[in-house]
Amino acid sequence: MMPEDMRRDLPITQQYIYLDNAATTPVPSPIIDAMIEYFEEYCANIERGAYSIAARASDICDAAREEVAKRLLHCDVEEFIFTRNQTQAANFVAYSLEHPFLNRWKTGFKFAPPLVKWTPESKIVSTLLEHHSNFMPWIRLAKHVGAQFQTITPTIEGRLTPEMFAEVIDEDTKFVAFQHASNAMGTKHDIAAIIRVIKSANPQCLVFIDGAQGAGHMPVDMKAYGCDFYSISGHKGPLGPPGTGGLYAREELIQRMAPAEVGGGTIASVTDNDYMLRSDHRARRWDAGTPNIIGLIGLGAAIKYLNKIGVQNVANQEHVLTKHLLDGIRDIPNLLIYGPKEDLTWKVGAICFNIQGWLSHDVSLALDSQWKILTRAGHHCCQPFMKFLDVLSTYQGNVRASFHYFNLIEEVDTLIQALKTLAA
Questions:
Q1: 104: which strand partners?
Q2: Half-sphere exposure (CA, 13 Å, Cβ side) for 372?
Q3: Which of 278, 307, 336 is at the close of a domain?
Q4: Alpha-carbon Rg of the chain, whole angstroms?
Q5: Which of 348, 352, 355 lies closest to 395, judged by CA?
Q6: Distance between CA atoms of 85 and 82, rounded to whole angstroms?
Q7: Domain span holding position 411
Q8: Contacts of 24 (CB under 8 A, 6+ apart)
Q9: Of 185, 195, 72, 82, residue with least CA distance to 131
């Protein structure tokens, strides 16, 4: 599939130059068709229905889980928890780190040993570059368990390096959370190397990766990284519908994680004073009540579509577009570019910038009204790093143009000319 083929599945590209893929990627029509088919042909609840269309719905949802787990994340299907977004995935992990797993055992209804034994000396480490969804849950967790919360400051270009983590990880560090790629700077990080440093310094330390800007934009592999948790957003790189996402949790951990919600769909049996959670498919312990069936079907269809393109082809196309844009705007007077500008080894398909004398939102509004170019402006849910850059008071953040496979060189050329006009 070529970018032009994908554009035929995205009617919005006939009206706009859509460059806000780091927030939400438009959903291709075959994925929408798959969701409509559910409503029109087999709209039934899953798992326990004893009739044909219920069985069909269950089978397609099972296949969708397998698509996401095996073809997107390269993990076992029982290590993949379906969520409504990356934010919920992070909060699921935070809950399980605070609350021991409660279940009926042979010896009675009781708590399992906690994932982490917290003490006043325990440390939770994150970075100033994180999206609020990968920052706030850990601040709250630290307060709830009485641990210390510590942040790592990235480079001015938004880079995180193994050496930065080596300086802070010690035997008291119980949990580390950081991103695969930055939505506010367009940088990606060598997460495998960073995780090796963390695990070398403290093998018991648990590592959470925010993969909202990773999965779907580039190949990812849970087993190769060595992380304990990896969260995804279904409606960005993977091309799925809004309200979808997921969490990879390493097999040894998912068995001992406490679900944040319990109810129908999560249990093996219930008595008048206890319950036993299901063990046939541990990841479904997080499917309390009727899950987002239509979202899961759509996400599964999206992964099939994405694999027709090839995730590496997505990464290659975004690299070409990113280089072309940077080459075209690097020397524009009054234009400030954030993130790496020369060495694109650690750059993803998102470029952030400001124009001197303009508020970021005014630049984005002008690009839309005059050229129908859709970008994102503001602090990108990354206020701590925006304060570090000192851009909040002057620009109210920055402007971000972000790509996917369907974007074209011609669209980038239009953006370049628009920015030259606005910056003149």
A1: 109
A2: 7
A3: 307
A4: 22
A5: 355
A6: 9
A7: 3-19+310-423
A8: 235, 236, 242
A9: 185
Q: Which residues are catalytic?
A: 381
Sign of the C-alpha dihedral computed for residues 14, 20, 22 and 24 taken in this order = negative
The pLDDT tens digits of the residues spanning 172-225 come to 999 999 999 999 999 999 999 999 999 999 999 999 999 999 999 999 999 999
Residue type, 389: L
Q: What's the rounded Cα separation, in Å, for the pair 339 and 315?
A: 18
Coil, strand, or helix at residue 399? Answer: strand
> Residue 389 domain-assigned?
yes
Per-residue pLDDT, 342: 87
Backbone angles phi, psi at 179, to 5 degrees: -95, 160
Phi and psi, residue 55, nearest 5°? -65, -40
Low-confidence ranges of the chain (pLDDT < 70): none
| Dist. CA 423–CA 420, nearest whole Å | 5
Can you tell me the distance from the alpha carbon of 102 to that of 258, in angstroms, rounded to the nearest whole number?
7
Residue indicated by tokens 């993990």:
75
- Is residue 268 assigned to a domain? yes
Q: Tell me, rounded to whole angstroms, the distance of Cα 359 from its chain centroid.
A: 28
Q: Are residues 329 and 295 in the same domain?
A: no
Q: How many domains does the chain have?
A: 2
CB 236 within 8 A of CB 229: no
The helix/strand/coil state of 391 is: coil
Task: Kindly state the tokens that stand for 229.
Answer: 């948790």
Residue 277 pairs with which residues in a beta bridge? 267
Q: What is the dihedral of CA 206, 209, 215, 218, to 10 degrees?
A: -100
Lookup result for tokens 């206020």: 383
